[in-house]
Amino acid sequence: MLTILAILIGAVGAATTSYNECPAILKAAGVSDMFAPMIAHSVHSLTLEDIRYFFDADATEENGIPTVNFDLQSDARVLPNAPLVGYDDDFSTMGMKAFDLVMRNMNRTWWGITNYNTLETLLHAYHMAEIWEKTSENYKMVARLLDPESDICACMTDVENNDVLNYMNLLAFKIRYPGITSGNKTITDQYMKDRVKRSAAYKLSIVIELRSAVVNFDGFNFDLPDVELLGDIAEKLVDNEEVITQHIDSAEHWQFWKDLIKEGMDESGFYDLAVFLFCSLN
């Protein structure tokens, strides 16, 4: 970590940086090779209220942090900025504010993560808050040392080219169409047949987890509508990600989820996320 800090201290004054230079620049700064999928996973449900609480009290609605649109009926699967969602400020803790947001939306079929029950939706909210809490200490360190005009920040915020936006769109598809990358044709053929958002045929869902495989997005244009991309995603982006078979409806099934979320990110992931958030917000 001391080596990384020394690099950050020297990372001032960005020159014009081509994206071809970015892998070497980020590696020298201690950013991991898996930063893009990790960041997509870690900020996909981030709200402006969360940013202001955990990272930057002065953050604006134009914050530059893409997130998955939890309105699953919207044609816009990814939002360009973490949104203001309207936490109830009559509550004094973030835990109660997140709880209230989930409960206010619990009857909205097309909100959140496909076919999660209420306990799973609450677990997801608390799990993400734990990630942000752990990242906040790294963020304070990065904020002291890193120049937002550095080439490191230029590379980290180039989401159009560094695959962060691609992984965010892929995650949005997995949330809307559970099992779309499973390679299970029984599932994917149903999506191809129905060509509708969140086919009700199977009542499926996924566990939102960090996948270690690198994805090749060559030829994908996520500006296209869902119906034009479903076939290619089902065929070309297979990662064998399975759908949920154990919902939180018993102590035994809770143990499965508990073990899964405890795997979490390692320290390099919190560092990568802190660098990305600082660069995006400054």
Content-based structural category:
mainly alpha
- As a percent range, the share of strand residues is under 5%
Rg from alpha-carbon coordinates: 19 Å
Output the strand order for the largest sheet. Answer: 1-2
Number of H- or I-type helical stretches:
12
- The strand count comes to 2
> Mind describing the biggest β-sheet?
2 strands, antiparallel
Question: What is the approximate shape?
Answer: globular
Termini separation comes to: 23 Å
- Let me know the average pLDDT: 88
Ranges where pLDDT stays below 50 over 5 or more residues in a row are 197-203
Order of helices and strands: HHHHEEHHHHHHHH
Residues in helices, as a percent range: 40-55%
Describe this protein's structure.
By secondary structure, the protein is mainly alpha-helical. Helices cover 49% and strands 1% of the residues. It has twelve helices and two strands; from the N terminus they run ααααββαααααααα. Strands 1-2 form a two-stranded antiparallel sheet. It starts with a helix and ends with a helix.
Write the layout of secondary structure elements.
Blueprint: H1 2-10, H2 22-28, H3 35-43, H4 48-54, E1 67-68, E2 78-79, H5 94-104, H6 118-145, H7 151-156, H8 164-176, H9 185-194, H10 226-236, H11 251-263, H12 267-281
Antiparallel strand pairs: 1-2
Helix pairs in contact: 3-8, 3-12, 5-6, 6-12
Keywords summarizing the entry:
two-stranded antiparallel ribbon, single chain, mainly alpha, 282 residues
